[in-house]
Amino acid sequence: MEIKITTSQILKSLHLFSWIIFIALCIEAGALLFNTIYTFVYSPAAAKFFYKQLNFENLLQSNPSYFITLLSIMLIIATLKAILFYLIIWYFSKTKQMHSKPFTIYLYQFVKNSSLCSLGIALFSNWGTKFSSFLTKNNYIIPNLEQLNFSGASIWLFFALFLFVISQVLKKGIEIQEENELTI
Questions:
Q1: Is residue 102 part of a domain?
Q2: Nearest CA to 151 among 82, 73, 39?
Q3: In this structure, how many other beta carbons lie within 10 angstroms of the beta carbon of residue 69?
Q4: 2: in domain
């Protein structure tokens, strides 16, 4: 007995997993935003037991502006990751009807916007890494880069450049496809 998995089944599974990851990333971004506001406005003692058990008590007591800056970078990165998965969901919703043309404007927009989103994640991850290094050099006690989700800036940059190249190839493919439709 042979089990065949079709492309349609794979795409449906990817769409479902994209929704699950998108929801998880939205929850993470929302939790970061809520904890930041709650800690800064209502209860500074909550900095000791921040989201995912991160301890920012020393940073908040020493310099609240550094606390806000560090958590803003974390929030921007989390939001950009959620937007990246939203783009995947958006693309799946746009391509349900279109299977006759391989190159569509939706595919180009998806890849181009994913590239820009990945570039944003790379830039903010790099900024977060440098800011964390600055804080550590100035004797502030902060969690490590992996806990702050700042690691991997070079990988995100590579991914952004890779997607940008693909978007330009798709753009050329769309132009050629439109020319072929006009000549027929």
A1: yes
A2: 73
A3: 16
A4: no
* Distance, CA of 184 to CA of 177 (rounded, Å): 11
d(CA 77, CA 117): 10
User: How far apart are the C-alpha atoms of 24 and 159, rounded to whole Å?
Assistant: 22
Question: Distance (Å, rounded) from C-alpha 149 to C-alpha 77?
Answer: 8
Closest Cα to residue 31, out of 14, 52, 8?
52
Q: Backbone phi, then psi, for 139, in 5-degree steps? A: 65, 30
Please tell me the distance from the alpha carbon of residue 156 to that of residue 27, in angstroms, as a whole number. 22
Report the domain count for the chain.
1
**Within a domain: 152:** yes
Q: Which two tokens stand for residue 159?
A: 């991914």
Domain that holds residue 14: 7-183
pTM over 0.85: yes
Residues 96, 99, 101: CA angle, nearest 5 degrees: 130
Tell me what percent of the chain is helix, strand and coil, each rounded to the nearest 5.
80, 0, 20
Structure tokens at 132: 């964390």
Question: What averages of pLDDT result for each successive group of 10 residues across the chain (184 residues)?
Answer: 79 90 94 86 75 78 87 94 93 70 81 95 94 89 81 92 94 84 66
Nearest alpha-carbon partner for 71 in 98, 94, 99, 47: 47
40 within some domain = yes
